[in-house]
Structures are given as C-alpha cells and as structure tokens.
Amino acid sequence: MLTLQPSQILFFLTLLMGTATTFSASSWFMAWIGLELNLLSFIPLLSSKSNRYSSESSLKYFLIQALGSSLILASAPLSLYLQDITTITITLALLLKMGAAPFHFWFPPVMQGITWPQCIMISTVQKVAPMLLLMMTQLGSSPVILMTASTLSAVVGAIGGLNQTLTRKILAYSSINHMAWMLAAIMFNEQMWTIYFLTYAMVSSSVMLILHTYQIYHFNQLSSFSVYSKPIILALFLSLLSMGGMPPLTGFFPKWLIIQQFIFSKSIIWLSILLMSALLTLFFYLRIAISSMVFSSPKMKTGLPSSPQSILLAMTLINFSPIFYPFLGLFLY
C-alpha cells in the first residue's frame, strides 16, 4: 500500500507541527511562522523521482503559497492605518492558500501532477491551518467575502468537474465544491466546520485510497476493476455516494446540519445554490461509479490479494452506516 521513507516521516511530522503552531498561535506573526513551516515541510513531500510532473506541481504550489504568505505580511503595515482593508487582504490571502474560488485556478493543475497520497494531504491536512485562521478573521469582518467565495466555489466546483475524464481533476473540483460548504459552516460555528471537515476527510480519503491501490488516473483505467473485485466496486460506489451527500450515508449528516442552519437563518438563495451544485457533483461521482461497473472486463484478473482488499473495505465502512451519526453529533456539545 503506502511506503514512507524516514525523511518523509520527518517532513510529515514538521508539517503537522506547523499546523499545530498556527492553531495555537497567540499572534499573527506566530501564525505566519506556522504557515511557512507547513509550506516548507510539504514541498519535499510533493517532490518525487518516480513522477516527472511532481517538480512542476511543487513549483506551482510553492509560488501560490508564497504569494499568499506575502499578502499576509503586506497586511501588517496596513493595519496601522486601514483596519478594514487589512482584514480583507488577510481573508483573500487565506482563500488563495486554500484554493477557494475565485482563487482556485492553481488547485486542479497541482493535483493533476501529484500522486494519490499527496492528493489526500493537499485536500485535507493542508486546508486546516488557513481555515482555522479564516475563522479568526471572519469574526471581525463582513460576511460578504465569505458568502461570495462560498457561492463561487460551489458553482466552479460543480461545473468544472462535469467535462473531466481525469479522476484527480474530478476530485480536485469536488474538493472546491466541498470547500463551499466548509466556508458556510465557518460562518455558522466552529463545531459545524469540525464535523464537516472530519467527515469530508474520512470519506474523500477512502475514495482516493481505492483509486491509489488500483492506480486509477483516467476513466479508461476503470476497467481494472475486474469482476473478481466486486466488493471493492461496491465500496467505491458507496463512498462516492457518501461524498455526494446521499442519505443515509455518513456524508449526508454534516450537509443536513448545515442545511438546518441555512433554514434557521433564512438564507434560502445561498442554500439553493449549494444544493444545486451538490446535485451536479453527484452526477460526476455517479459517472465514475457506473463506469467502474460497466467497464469491468472478465478477462482482466487484477483483483488484489485478500489483505489489501480487507483493509480497504474496513476503511470504507465509515460510509455505509448512520451508526456514526451519534459520534459526529458529540462535536456539537
């Protein structure tokens, strides 16, 4: 499955240390140091000798993150004179660092050039620090910027993935769409964001681990799901439905909570845009799932040994039952 070198383990630990530094920082300077530590730890993890596109993705990621960090630094002298512009600048910089629309242009190309384990990290772990800082920023700013970014992320993530045949780009646009729901959750309260982020991290990781195990990067490669791995096909199908928020799967629970908050706050138009975009994302999830079934070839015996299959099935069980709802609900109290 996954083999890690000692250097990769070291950089991963310093990456987590950078996120923890940002999370526990008492000043913007320490938060910035945590972001830089996180960035400098992630660049070596992106680089790979076996992948010729990783250098390009690493450079793109570094330049974008450096631009975001420079904007945060540039907002420091502005805070002496123009407090409102400072808050707006920091918010835009954080949206750029996490790849939310309208600053999403770098995210799909970077994901296209890296491996699936790196895709898991850039879609989950790397979004924690900017979103935590965004929670602190939005307390003193107007909600218009986050509402606009959430709406644009929903539309871009839904429409951008419709015409794609590359699985990494599809999941990149899917991540942008889920970011719209996370930005909405940030507007409501921290507990709701925590529930949504943890659920998204578990569900998307289960999908990407299946695609990594079978090395699926294009629709044409879905034929490697042979008739001898029907449990894996079912696991992928249910995991994708869970990512789309189909009840009663696990991915539906955080969307349900956010929908309730939208109704209580009477933000019906914003909610309608998010729901319409969720239907479009469900369409291209179903394209992957149905293609994995239709393209199956009985001549291709590519079934995995029982050990990796059992591990994958155990990891994807989180999507199959609402039994996890009470545990997720604990974050609300």
TrEMBL record:
It is a multi-pass membrane protein. InterPro entries: Complex_I_Subunit_2, NADH_UbQ_OxRdtase_chain2, ND/Mrp_TM. Keywords: Electron transport, Membrane, Mitochondrion, Mitochondrion inner membrane, NAD, Respiratory chain, Translocase, Transmembrane, Transmembrane helix, Transport, Ubiquinone. It is an enzyme of class 7 (translocase). It catalyses: a ubiquinone + NADH + 5 H(+)(in) = a ubiquinol + NAD(+) + 4 H(+)(out). GO terms for biological process: mitochondrial electron transport, NADH to ubiquinone. It is found in: Mitochondrion inner membrane. It holds the Pfam family Proton_antipo_M. GO terms for molecular function: NADH dehydrogenase (ubiquinone) activity. It comes from the Eukaryota. The keyword Metal-binding does not apply. The chain crosses the membrane at residues 59-82, 144-163, 194-211, 232-253, 268-290, 311-332. Core subunit of the mitochondrial membrane respiratory chain NADH dehydrogenase (Complex I) that is believed to belong to the minimal assembly required for catalysis. Complex I functions in the transfer of electrons from NADH to the respiratory chain. The immediate electron acceptor for the enzyme is believed to be ubiquinone. Core subunit of the mitochondrial membrane respiratory chain NADH dehydrogenase (Complex I) which catalyzes electron transfer from NADH through the respiratory chain, using ubiquinone as an electron acceptor. Essential for the catalytic activity and assembly of complex I. This is NADH-ubiquinone oxidoreductase chain 2. It comes from Caridina longshan. The gene is ND2.
